[in-house]
Write a structure and sequence with these properties.
Elements (H helix, E strand, L loop, with lengths): L3 H4 L5 H7 L9 E5 L3 H7 L4 H21 L4 E8 L7 H24 L3 E5 L7 H13 L7 E8 L1 H18 L9 H5 L12 E4 L18 E4 L9 H12 L35
Parallel strand pairs: 1-2, 1-5, 2-4, 3-4, 5-6
Helix pairs in contact: 2-9, 3-4, 4-5, 5-6
């Protein structure tokens, strides 16, 4: 049972949206493309790195809200393999902010029973960053609440490449037959193995693209795009995304049949007996 007062104060806009949610139909796993830090800073005539710094507050609000709602998983796209092309100072600042976040928020993660994980090629990061990440993974390993994934040095194509290499090595070693490779086997080798695929993908800043993020996992995700820039994203915006998700019909390629109306009388024959309705194909 969630504590609504812990998530949103009574008589607030956040609470109104929260009270309108069906807690039995919340997404199990939400993924977020955090976009708009640079534009947020530019609009305020600030250096780009100040947008990243402001975005930490949004990370805190989103993680705490998701955990208090009892979601199974939350995955935030923090740093892609393409982001290495950015100015060196910006990259160094991003990594420093990551270490600062882990240091400051560790007690909050533990208090909310949140298990921290990394998805991506962690070995490609600076040793000091890897050390901080491994420490956070170790310290939260015993937590049994929400799994909080941070995608670092991540690329959806790189992830699938790594899966292909792993499976090829197993075939070459004789521990796996080619005919045994199926969707379930591939999913079990993904960075996100053990978590259900995201039910909902949120992208901030209004951009209409998935940016090489969780390409396998989001095959059937509902996509919600908000014009809100990431540093301005708060609990209200996360709850609004969940509300929009619950208004969707998830068909997975099929159709949703309307429920029969029990009040509607069955068709009758000329003698008054009921008969099945004709079916048109």
């Amino acid at each position: 049972m969630i504590d609504r007062d812990e998530i949103a104060r009574p008589a607030t806009q956040e609470r109104a949206v929260l009270d309108g949610l069906d807690v039995a139909r919340l997404p199990r796993h939400v993924a977020v493309i955090m976009d708009g830090n640079g534009r947020w800073a530019k609009a305020r005539k600030l250096p780009r790195v100040e947008g990243h710094r402001a975005g930490i507050v949004s990370v805190r609000a989103t993680v705490e809200t998701a955990a208090r709602l009892g979601l199974q998983g939350l995955t935030l796209y923090a740093f892609s393999t393409e982001n290495w092309k950015r100015p060196r100072f910006e990259v160094l600042t991003l990594m420093a902010l990551l270490k600062e976040y882990l240091r400051r928020e560790m007690q909050t993660l533990l208090a909310n029973d949140i298990r921290f994980r990394v998805v991506g090629r962690m070995e490609g990061l600076d040793p000091s960053v890897v050390s901080a990440l491994k420490d956070a993974i170790s310290r939260t390993a015993g937590c049994r609440g929400m799994i909080f994934n941070v995608a670092l040095n991540y690329s959806g194509r790189a992830e699938l490449t790594d899966v292909a290499r792993t499976l090829a090595a197993e075939v070459a070693a004789g521990t796996l037959r080619v005919e045994e490779i199926d969707e379930e086997r591939i999913s079990s080798r993904l960075y996100t193995a053990g978590l259900p695929d995201p039910d909902l993908l949120i992208r901030t800043s209004g951009e209409m693209r998935v940016s090489n993020f969780l390409l396998w996992q989001i095959a059937y995700s509902e996509i919600y795009v908000t014009p809100v820039l990431w540093p301005d994203f708060r609990c209200l915006h996360f709850l609004e995304a969940l509300s929009a998700f619950q208004r969707r019909e998830r068909r997975y390629g099929g159709i949703v049949e309307p429920e029969p109306d029990p009040e509607q009388a069955a068709p009758t024959s000329s003698d008054g007996s009921s008969r099945p309705a004709a079916v048109t194909r």
